[in-house]
Description:
The complex is a heterodimer. Chain A is an all-alpha fold. Chain A contains 17 helices and 2 strands. In chain A, strands 1-2 form a two-stranded antiparallel ribbon. Chain B is mostly helical. In chain B, helix 7 packs across helix 9 (168-189) and helix 11 (208-233) runs antiparallel to helix 12 (239-261). At the A-B interface, helix 3, helix 5, helix 7 and helix 8 of A face helix 4, helix 5 and helix 6 of B.
Amino acid sequence: MKWMTLAQIYAEQKKNLKIIEKRLEYSLEAPHPILNQASLDLLRAGGKRIRPLLVLLAAQYGDPERKEVMDSAVTLELIHMASLVHDDVVDDSDLRRGKPTVKAKWDNRVAMYTGDYIFARAIELISKFDHPKAHQVISKVIRDLSLGEIDQIRYLFNWKQNLRCYLLRIKRKTAILMALSCQLGGFASGCSDFVSKKLYYFGYFLGMSYQITDDVLDFVGTEKQLGKPAGSDLRNGNITLPAFYALQDRRLHDSVVSVLESNHPTEREWQSVVESIRNSDAIQMAENLSDLYLKKAIAKLHELPELRVTHSLQEIAEYVGTRKY
Amino acid sequence: MSVEQEVGIIYKQLMDDLTHPYVNSILPKPSIDKDKLLVYYMLFQTKVNREMAGVYAKSVMIAEVGLSTHETMTVAKLSMKDDIKRRQLTALSGDFYSALYYYSLARNNNTRIVKWVAQAIQIFNIEKCRLYYPKREFGWPQAIEALGSTESALVSQIASKLGLKSWIPVLSDFFLAKKLVGESRDASARTLQSFLNQYLREQLTSDPHQFRQNIEKEVLSSAERFRKSSAKAEKQTGKLADLLAYLNDQMHNYCRCMVEEG
């Protein structure tokens, strides 16, 4: 069977993704100029649309022409967009993808209204889907997403946290939305619960690997690639996997703890710690765990019917493992 | 068991659902409008049994709590770690509560009400933007009208969907008056004032005496409108007659308190 590159996968879904962009634009229309502009700015900032793509691909295990497939793809991107607007308030970020965030262009309150509005549009759209189990799964994921974000705040600067704590956090923060994208593609296209569950696990393992890769890139990427200084997660007190492994390294432990516990570490101290983590085994160890999740994701694909789309999903998994930004 | 006792039980369940030990250790417990909870409970009873009415009333109130939590969001630049954490959790706990209404209704297989609430939340956010970010400068009447729309955005939507459109003006004026009485108290107490209070003062009148007078006038006007629309809605029978009596008593109490405190 002929393999497709990631670019070919996107090209093959171009027509559907274009419809999704139109549907997103329609969904984000609001009868107030600020709300409308804030929502449209978000849409125009673009993004990989990885979640809608996963819905579209997963739907090929069933009937991808069902209208619920498009509704699900649009809903998941709207949920993702709503969470980004609120995340920028939480992280006090002024830029996203090089553009001013809603909270920077207007203020925190507009960001709250915009996020809540978009989130409500998403829920209204998916409420048409007559599938009780799907609603139970979606609503649980949305609840867990916010619990993951709360946990992230809870464990900021807490260098004593364990690996399980980190893994649960990234599961809730990232992996479950990717898992839901795949599972919902299954539900919406009429797949059996059995196939939908396998798709869920593929998305879950993929999401875990995706977030770990993101956390590694935060240390090894350049400021230009990242759009923010390297090591920003650590500077914000977020102990990600490379920092966690660095804390287990006797040579690095004290310096990492020292910046995390200091009230006002200097820029030089931050840079030094970020540099030492970047040059340590911690990066390789984190990449190994990311690879392990990818292998699990690919193994899950082997439990699914072998269709052309199975290879596309494998290609996506491999892209996640090799992406540089 | 009286309706108030039944609502007391739902209130307790609601508080349990909203409990998050970490959030509760940093932020004050969310405040719940018991009048609104009772209104939802009785409105839903016109269509479903008491048990389900309790489930639906609780779910819609969770959505109300999510929105009111986000209403406490501040805009000032912060530098202290604890202040920053409080702001972060204000955003995130509001999201958590907003997720819970869907979670709760999905568990009861009721996506119809999920849709109603989602539509109402959209209206609420549009009205909030209309109030705080008006397209053109507007005065006291427009601000009060926009405030009235936001205060009853969800409850009006639910009343409308339940086929009780004649109740919308009753509920709008009741909750507007209640909100204004609260703002009036807030202004008198001169403690930390709400964003709304500060906004109204900055936009409309900086004179505290004038501000209070305007608020009192609006409370009395909405109470008067409430009385007229109540008379029209009085034709309703059964449970809703009890609801009307309850709201009338409460309105009387709020107006009396405001006059006495004034």
